[in-house]
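From the pipeline queue, job 12 of 40. The input is one protein chain; the requested action is below.

Action: predict structure.
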Amino acid sequence: MNKQSIAKLKLFFMGLENKYSENNSIFKEISVVFKTGLKTFKGRGFYENGNIKYNFNGVTKTESITNLLHSIAEDAESYEALELIYSERGTNILITADNKNVSMKNIEVQEVTSSKSNDKSVGQCDPGHNDYNGDGKTSTLLNRNYFIKVGKADNLLKEINIMTKDGKIKNDKIRKYNQIDHYVELLDGIFDKLETRGTLTILDCGCGKSYLSFVLNYYLTEVKKFKCHFIGIDYSESVIKSSRKMAENLGYRNMEFHAMDIKDYIPNRDINIVLSLHACDTATDMALALGIRVESDVIIAVPCCHRELLNQYSYEPFSPVLKHGILKARIADALTDGMRAAMLEAKGYDVSVLEYISPLETPKNLMIRAMKTKDENPKAMEKYLGLMQSLNVYPALYKFLNEWESLK
């Protein structure tokens, strides 16, 4: 290749170096094909511990991105043409070069489809077709435009056990797939409001196996093209080990996991979104308190196992109703989440409480969605304190916030 083309190629490579330095956590691979006449010579490099393990002409070397691209440019001098693909999660950049022209463009990441994708007898339902899911309920693949699409998201769906190895949504996982996708739909508009805030840091409290964090990681990185970083916290060493292994399998290097108690976590970076999904009883309050304490832009909680206020609250005008245990329990659930929402509003959050999934799936189906928009509201706090007095309750969220305030 002539000197003029090599010089232009090196300019494009400088852009790739900058891209790698800013986004190496989502880098996947570099593949290159050199051409002379009808002959082709292929090289391929993968991320390995901060460098790239590159194989060309039967020789494997571990290089920095700078040294690798310099070596490829030098090799190009001996050939007539070059095609190089720089792959990130969700994005491919194609550079082509010969003696006449050098060009660079983004190319669409192709969907992966199963050779059996039309075989409806193998673990796949038609949209709208009912299928028994093994737990006494029926599930359907919905006639909708999914946010987490079969094809592009196959690696993710297989890793979180939603999809079979041959590319079919498992019959007993259809309901879970629909729930996950609806979760993303409910948060999608919030992401757009945070787009201008640089790298989004998402903290998953009581993360368990982190399925929803993996799903959000895929969606933000590969669909929305946002730069993001995920932190998962759970007291269980085994689930943290499992999450780390899944992240390794998927190549999601923009994730970290810590086996620890939520109350002991001290962030070393600004937190944009705090998540809490089905954390039991007051663990939800601990996550909300952490979100408030670190001044997270957004707090999302799907509470579970409401027990705390059941044996605390009393309200004399309701005594004819509260003598019925089942009604007292249901009101306790509503009061617990209602007071959580009230505290978030007092702390300057706009709050909505909505059904996350159908109550036919589970009665614990509410999502608390809060976005920080203003300073603390003293009048709202007065109302909250008045509610505490009227109901004779001392909520865990209030207690956790006071404990952390005393440690300042």
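Job complete. Confidence is low (pLDDT under 50) at residues 113-138.
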